[in-house]
Amino acid sequence: MAALVYRLLCFGLVLAAVAAYTFKNCIEEKNSNRRSFKCNQRREPNISVIMDDLPQHIVNLSILGNPIRYIPDKAFARFKDLHLLRLDNNRLMAIEGSAFGELHQLRSLNLSFNNISELRPSLFASLHNLTFLSLRANRLKRLPGGIFSAMPNLSTLMLQQNLLANFTEMVDSVSNLSDLLQLNLCLNKFTSLHHNRIPFPRSLSKLYLCRNNLSALGCERSFLSDVKILDLSYNSRLAAEAFLGVDLARTNYLNLHSTAVNVMTLLDISNIHAGHVDFTGTGVKNNSMLLALCNLLTRKVKSLNALRLGSNGIRELPNDTLSHCPRIMTSLDLSGNHMKSVKNKMLNCLGFLGENRYFKKLVIEHNHLSNLYSCKQVRRPFWEFEELSFRYNRILMVSDYAFNHTPNVVTLNLNINIIAFLGHKALKGLHRLKTLRLDNNLLTDLYSDTFEDLSALQTLNLRNNRISVIFNWTFLRLRDLTTLDLGGNKIVRIHSAGFRGLGRLSKLYLDGNKLKQIDMSLHAVFWHTLTVLDLEENFIRFSTLNASSPFVNLSRLSDLKLGGQRPYGLTHLPHKLFRGLRNLRSLYLTNNQISYFAADAFDDLTYLRFLTLDKCCDVNIRLPPGVFKNLRNLTKLTVENAGIQNFSGKVFGNLTRLQTLQLTHNGMQSLDVDVLNSLPSLRYLDMRHLPLSCTCLNSRLQNWTVHNDRVQVVYVYNLPCQEGDKSNFYNFETNVCYIDLGKYLFFSTSAAVALLAAFPLLYVKLYWKIKYGYYAFRSWFGEQWRKFREEEENCAYDAFVSYNSNDEDWVMLQLLPNLEGKGSSLKLCLHHRDFEPGRDIVDNIVAAVYSSRKTICVVSRNFLQSEWCSLEIQLASYRLFDEHRDVLLLVFLEPVSERQISSYHRMRKVMLKKTYLQWPASDCVDPEQARELFWSQLRRAVKAGSKLETEENDETRAAPDIDDLGDSDTQTLIADGNFYMD
Fold first, then answer.
1. Which of 463, 525, 652, 942 could form a disulfide with 439 if both were Cys (CB 3.0 to 4.6 A apart)?
2. Residue 69 contacts by C-beta under 8 Å, 6 or more apart in sequence?
3. Short-list 378, 430, 383, 420, CA closest to 399
4. d(CA 225, CA 342)
5. Terminus-to-terminus CA distance in the chain, angstroms?
C-alpha cells in the first residue's frame, strides 16, 4: 500500500507539472481543439480498435489506408457531432445496416476506393443532413430501392468506377433527392438511359456519364432538360440519332469527346445551343470538315463563347479557315492536334483566324510546333489577345518579333518545350505582359535586351533550363517584377549588376544551381523588398572565418532555404550567419551535413516561426547550449533524422512558444521531462523512431506521455523498447524505479512484533545471563575506549578560554597569569592571541575547541548575551555529551539566576550533572585563601584527563581536598558558596 501511495504521489507531481496525451492509432490535426483526427496507414483491421480512445465530440474523422474489411453496427454511435467522415482507400467489403446510426449531424461521407459490393437498404437511414456522398471505385452492381431516400439534403453523389448497369434502378434511388446538384456515373456499365418515366430531380445540374457502354439514350424528352453540364464522353457506341427527341435546350456544356457522334447531324436534329457543344475529339480532322462545321455554326448562332477543337487530329489550318466560324468571344482551344510550324507568315502568325480576332485566349498545347517565326510584317495585330499558351510542343527556336501580332498579351506560356534559342527581340513589343513562363526548356544564355520591353512583367519563370551566367543588365527593365524563378539551372556566377533594375523583387528562386557563394550585398536593389530566397541544392559553404553575413541587408526576408548543399551539404553555421534577418519567419536547413553550430548562429532570428533541420547534421552532433535561446517566437521545429543525441534544457528550454516539435529518427535514448515542462505552448510532439530505453531513465517520460491531456504525443502505444524484448515503451515495468516503502515497513514491523513477543520469554529465562554479559561487555568496551582516547590525547592547547570581551580584564589579569605563569606548563588558547588572521571566525572557534583538551567558559551575564559565546559552549557541550569527553569547565564570575540560565539547556544540563567553579566574592571571610584554592582546583581540573569516569570519581577529582584544609577553612569555603555539587 505504501508503495502504491508513493507511486501515485510521484505520478501526481508529474501531472501537476505538465500535461500530455496520445492516441493509439490516430493523430489530432493541429489546432483543431480535439475536433479533427486522422487515423491513416495504421495496419489495424478492426475499426473499433482504431477509434476506441478518441473523444466523443469530434467533428472530422479520416480513417484511410487501413486493412479494414468490416464495419459493425453503431460503430460511430459515440460521435454524434461528427460532420465529416472519410473511410476511403481501405479494404471495406461489408458494412452493417446501422453502422452509421446516430450520425445525424454528418455532412460528408467518403467510402471511395474500397471493395464494397452490396449496400444494406438502411445503411444511410440516419444521415439526414448529409450533403456529400462518395462511393467511387467500389464493386457495386445494384442499388437497393430508397437507399438515399433519408438524405433530403444530399447535393453531390459520386458513383463512378462501379459495376452499375440498371439505369432505372439508379434513377429511382435518387428521384426524391430534391437538392441533388451533381451526379457522377462515369465508368459504369450503363448501355442506355432508359427508365420507367421516373424523372431526375429538377435540381440536378451536373450529370457525368463518361466511359460507359451507352449506345442509346432511350429517355423521355424532358429527362435531361434541367441538366446544365452533361458529360457523355468516351461512349464509343453512341450515335447522333440517340439525341433525337431529347430536350437539351438548357444544357450549357455537352462533352462528346471520343464518341461516334456526328456533330453535324447532332446540331441538325438536336435543340442544343451550338455554342454549348465541346467539339474536342469529335473527328473534325480536316479542313473541309472544319469549314462545314463553321458554316453550320454560323447558321445556328451569331457568336460562340468558346470554340474547343482539341484532339481532332488537325494537321494544318489554311489561311482564313476559321473566318467562316461565328465570332469567338472568349477562347479557342486547338490542343492535342498534330499542327506543325510552317514558314508561312500568315499561317505562322495566326493567319488562319481570319476575321476571328476578337477573342482573348488561344491555347495550342500538345501539338508539334517546332518554331515560332517572326511576325514583324503583320499589319493587323490581334489587339484583344490576353493569353497565349504553347506548352507541350516541340518548339526549338523563337525568332525576333515572334509576338509582334499580339502586343497586348498578359500571359504567355512557352514552358515545357525544347527552346534553345530565344531571339534578342523575340519578346519585343510585349509592353503589357505580366506572366512569362519559359521553364523546362534548353535556354543557355540571356541577353541584356531579351526582356527590355517587358516593363510590366511581374512573374518570370526560367526554371529548369541550362543558364550558367547571369550577365550585367539582364533584368534591367523589369522594374515591376516580383517573382523570378531561376531554379534548376547551372548558374555558377552572377555578375555584380546581374539583378540591377529589380527594385520590386519579392521572391527569388536560385535552387538547384552551382553557386559556391552568395553575396547579397552586391544586389542592393532588392534589399528592402525580397521576402523569399531559395538557395537549396547549390555548392554554398560558409566558413567560420566569415567576417559578415551574406544576408545582413535583407531586412524584409521572411523565407530562406539553404537545404541540400552539394556535394556533402553545409558543414558549418558560423558566428552570426543570419545577422540582420530580424523578420525571417521560415528557415530550411534540410539535407546537409552540419558538424558545427555556432552558439549564436540563430541569435538574430527573433521572429522566426518555422525551423526545419531534417537530415541537417552530421552523425552524433551535439547542439551547443543556447543555440535556440533567442527563438522565442518559434512555433514549429522539425529535427527529424538530424543526428541529434542530446535533449537538454540548455538547448531547447527557451522555446516558450513552440507548439510543434518533431524529433523522429534521432539518437536520443531519453527525453528530459523537465525540458518538456519548460515548453508551455507545446501541443504536438512526435518522437517516433527514437531509441528510447525502457529503463528507469525514462520512467517519468512514460507517465508523461501516456496519462496526461495537453500535449499530443504521436503514436506512443506503438513505440517499441530498444532492449530486444517484446514490451512497448508505454507499459514497460517501472516498479523497480521507485523505493518500495511497503516492503521495508512490512519487514521492520514484523521484526518489531517478533521482538516484542519474544522479550517476556527472554526476560524470564535469560535475565541474569543477559545482565552478566552486558556488564562484561561494558567493562571490555570501556577499557578499549580508554586506550583509544589516550592515544588521541595530543592536543595543541591545554584549554580554550571562552569569554565575553567585557570580562577580558579578568581573563588577562587573573586567569592568564595563574594558569600559564608561576612556572606552570599549561598553554591556553585565547581569541586575540591564537586565532588565525583572515580565517572565518566560526572556523577559528571550531578549530580552537577541537584542538584543546578542555574548554573553560567564563560565565557572566555578558557571556550569556553573546552569540559567539553561545556557539562556543554548544560545541564544548557537544563533545561532553555526544562524544562522552570531559572537556567542559564552567567558571562563574558572578551569581547568575536560574531564569537567566534556563534558555541555555545544555549549560543547565552541565550544571545539574557536573561540579562547577565560582569566583570567590570580595566580601568573603578570607578572599586571598579562597582565590588560592580556586586557582589550585582550576589547574587540577585542566590537567585532568578528558575521559568521563564514574560519578564517584568525578566528584572526588573535582571537589576540594578537605583533609588538607582546617575545619575553619572548610566551613568558610562551603559557607561562601565557592563550590556547588549535585
1. 463
2. 45, 91, 92, 93, 94, 115
3. 420
4. 45
5. 53
Distance in angstroms (rounded) separating the CA atoms of residues 498 and 526: 12
Nearest to 632 by CA among 606, 613, 610: 606
Report the alpha-carbon distance of residue 589 to residue 369 in Å, rounded: 42
Secondary structure E strands in 67-181? 70-71, 84-86, 94-95, 108-110, 132-134, 156-158
User: Is 853 within a domain?
Assistant: yes
Query: So what's the pLDDT on residue 402?
Result: 94
Does residue 937 belong to any structural domain of this protein?
yes
Res 417: pLDDT:
97
Q: For the residues 906-926, what does the mean pLDDT come to?
A: 69
| Under 8 Å between Cβ of 558 and 583 | yes
Predicted TM-score (pTM) of the model is 0.73
Q: Determine contact, residues 156/131, Cβ cutoff 8 Å.
A: yes
Per the CB < 8 A criterion, the answer to whether 615 and 568 are in contact is no
Query: Domain residues for 869?
Result: 793-980
Q: Using CB atoms within 10 A of its CB, is residue 150 exposed (0-12), middle (13-18) or buried (19+)?
A: middle
Residue with cell 508523461: 704
Does 154 fall in a domain? no
Residue 108: inside a domain: no
Query: Lowest-confidence range among 157-171, 251-265, 370-384, 745-759?
Result: 745-759
| 875, 846 Cβ separation under 8 angstroms | yes
Distances (CA, A) of 954 to 545, 914, 916, 959, 981: 82, 8, 12, 8, 11
Chain segment 131-154, per-residue pLDDT in tens: 999 999 999 999 998 899 999 999
DSSP, residue by residue, 331-389: EEE-TTS--B--S-HHHHTTGGGTT----SEEE--SSB--EE---TT-SS--TT--EEE
Grid coordinates given for 744? 521495508
What pLDDT score was predicted for residue 970? Answer: 32
Residues 99-103: contacts with CB within 8 Å, 24+ apart? Answer: 99/71, 99/72, 99/73, 99/74, 99/75, 99/123, 100/75, 100/76, 100/124, 100/126, 100/127, 101/73, 101/74, 101/76, 101/77, 101/125, 101/126, 102/74, 102/76, 102/77, 102/126, 103/76, 103/79, 103/127
Number of H helices, E strands in the chain: 21, 45
CB 88 within 8 A of CB 64: yes
Q: What is the pLDDT of residues 539-575, one digit of tens each?
A: 998 876 666 788 888 889 999 999 999 888 888 888 8
Record the cell numbers describing residue 7, joined without a space. 507511486
Instruction: Determine whether 67 is exposed, middle or buried from the number of CB atoms within 10 Å of its CB (0-12, 13-18, 19+).
Output: exposed
Give per-residue pLDDT as tens, 23-44.
Answer: 889 999 987 888 999 999 988 9
pLDDT at residue 219, as a whole number: 86
Burial readout 577-602 (b: 16 or more C-beta within 10 A, e: otherwise): bbbbbeebbbbbbbbbbbbbbbebbb
Domains contained in the chain, number: 1
Pairing of strands 435-437, 411-413: parallel
Helices (DSSP H) in 77-221: which residue ranges? Answer: 167-174
Grid cell 456515373 in the structure block, residue:
185
Sequence-separated (6 or more) residues with CB below 8 Å from residue 736: 696
Going by C-beta distance under 8 Å and a sequence separation of 6 or more, which residues neighbour residue 299? Answer: none
Mean pLDDT of 737-758: 75
Cell digits for 680? 508551455
Q: Are 134 and 88 in contact (CB under 8 A)?
A: yes
Host H or E run for residue 918: strand 916-918
Q: What are phi and psi of 828, to 5 degrees?
A: -100, 155
Cα dihedral 758, 764, 769, 773 sign: positive
Which residues lie below 8 Å from residue 10, measured CB to CB, with a gap of 6+?
700, 703, 738
On whether the CB atoms of residues 595 and 569 are closer than 8 A, the answer is no
Q: Indicate which CATH number applies to the domain containing 863.
A: 3.40.50.10140
906-to-870, 895, 913, 947 alpha-carbon distances in Å: 10, 18, 11, 19
Supply the pLDDT for residue 153: 95
Q: How, if at all, do strands 979-980 and 610-612 pair?
A: unpaired
Report strand pairing: 532-534 vs 229-231: unpaired
